[in-house]
């Protein structure tokens, strides 16, 4: 295994800057994911680590070996970096069998035939394709072809595995199966992994840490739990699936009563947990997940924290309902269990009672 250190990295295409001064430290044996929208610089970062792109400035070290240094004009070619890479497209040789595709990196390294055969068998066994060794690569399904590509990446026992959105071409069921396989491989095969995706589920499921990127800059670095529950700003909250992100005014920072906020365009006041956002801020942004809004169409006794809301729309999702609700001019999205409702489903125009627990409201700095 080997750690990866990216220091003050800069990359531009002509007058278009991808990133400038990028710093990322990947620990030895860690599974780190670069997460962000298209064009944020995550794939370019990965390609710079792989040696498929040459940065303009900065430094990259893999396992203590310097593979790029802009000040010394040093650039180590990809084949000498001891890495494996899995791409979005499978990049298999159509005229070769599964075993021949997997063994190709070893043939380029002139590994002895007996060792090559043994390592190919081991790699195919790890991805549950041992019985497919002699089949043409093109005769396999998309999920199986991606597993062949994965076996090819690990067969040379790389120090670092790089993944460039490897599950994007698979359907939802296969993506779930491949996520489980990648988790199992990371436990079984001692290697450091850097993974690129725009899919928050993949990032949260697979990663030890996540780097959220936007426009070539790092917005937040943290564990999946840290980023999922406590995003650093509205952009991260939105990208990590917070359905409700609204501006609000801080109306009370009383030492005894905690912090209370009023969403813009609303008379409702909510208590919030934590420190209530930036100290002294009068304006903040609130982030709440749709499934954390508690909706009661006909409560016998509304709780003290419940506020009146009007239903704007209802979408039936099977086991769940998605409700658009309005508190004054503030519009929120709620997702509730259909089976938990009694007395019929709410319809557009109904008045309901809405409760949000203070620990479910994330207070962020306004942008």
TrEMBL record:
It holds the Pfam family TOBE_2. The keyword Manganese does not apply. GO terms for cellular component: ATP-binding cassette (ABC) transporter complex, substrate-binding subunit-containing. InterPro entries: AAA+_ATPase, ABC_transporter-like_ATP-bd, ABC_transporter-like_CS, ABC_transpr_MalK/UgpC-like, Mo/tungstate-bd_C_term_dom, P-loop_NTPase, Transp-assoc_OB_typ2. Residues 4-240 form the ABC transporter domain. GO terms for molecular function: ABC-type transporter activity; ATP binding; ATP hydrolysis activity. Keywords: ATP-binding, Cell membrane, Membrane, Nucleotide-binding, Translocase, Transport. This is ABC transporter ATP-binding protein.
């Amino acid at each position: 295994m080997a750690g990866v250190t990216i220091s003050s990295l800069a990359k531009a295409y002509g007058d278009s800057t991808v990133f400038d001064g990028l710093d990322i430290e990947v620990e030895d044996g860690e599974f780190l994911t670069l997460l962000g929208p298209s064009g944020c610089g995550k794939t370019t970062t990965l390609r710079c680590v792989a040696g498929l792109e040459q940065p303009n400035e900065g430094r990259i070290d893999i396992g203590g070996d310097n593979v790029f240094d802009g000040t010394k004009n040093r650039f180590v070619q990809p084949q000498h970096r001891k890495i494996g890479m899995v791409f979005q497209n499978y990049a298999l040789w159509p005229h070769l069998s599964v075993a021949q595709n997997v063994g190709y990196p070893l043939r380029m390294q002139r590994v002895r035939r007996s060792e090559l055969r043994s390592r190919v068998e081991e790699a195919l066994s790890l991805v549950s394709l041992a019985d497919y060794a002699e089949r043409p690569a093109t005769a396999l399904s998309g999920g199986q072809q991606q597993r062949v590509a994965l076996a090819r990446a690990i067969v040379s026992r790389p120090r670092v595995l790089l993944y460039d959105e490897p599950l994007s071409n698979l359907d939802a069921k296969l993506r779930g199966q491949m996520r489980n396989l990648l988790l199992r491989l990371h436990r079984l095969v001692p290697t450091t992994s850097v993974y690129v995706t725009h899919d928050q589920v993949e990032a949260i499921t697979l990663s030890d840490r996540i780097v959220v990127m936007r426009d070539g800059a790092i917005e937040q670095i943290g564990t999946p739990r840290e980023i999922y529950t406590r995003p650093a700003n509205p952009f991260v909250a939105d990208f990590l699936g917070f359905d409700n992100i609204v501006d609000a005014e801080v109306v009370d920072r009383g030492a005894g009563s905690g912090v209370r906020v009023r969403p813009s365009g609303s008379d409702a006041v909510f208590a919030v947990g934590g420190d209530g956002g930036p100290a002294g801020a009068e304006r903040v942004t609130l982030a709440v997940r749709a499934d954390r809004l508690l909706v009661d169409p006909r409560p016998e006794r509304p709780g003290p924290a419940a506020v009146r809301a009007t239903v704007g729309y209802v979408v039936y999702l099977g086991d769940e309902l998605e409700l658009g609700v309005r508190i004054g001019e503030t519009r929120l999205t709620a997702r509730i269990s259909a089976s938990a409702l009694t007395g019929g489903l709410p319809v557009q125009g109904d008045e309901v009672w809405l409760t949000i627990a203070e620990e479910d409201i994330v207070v962020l700095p306004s942008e």
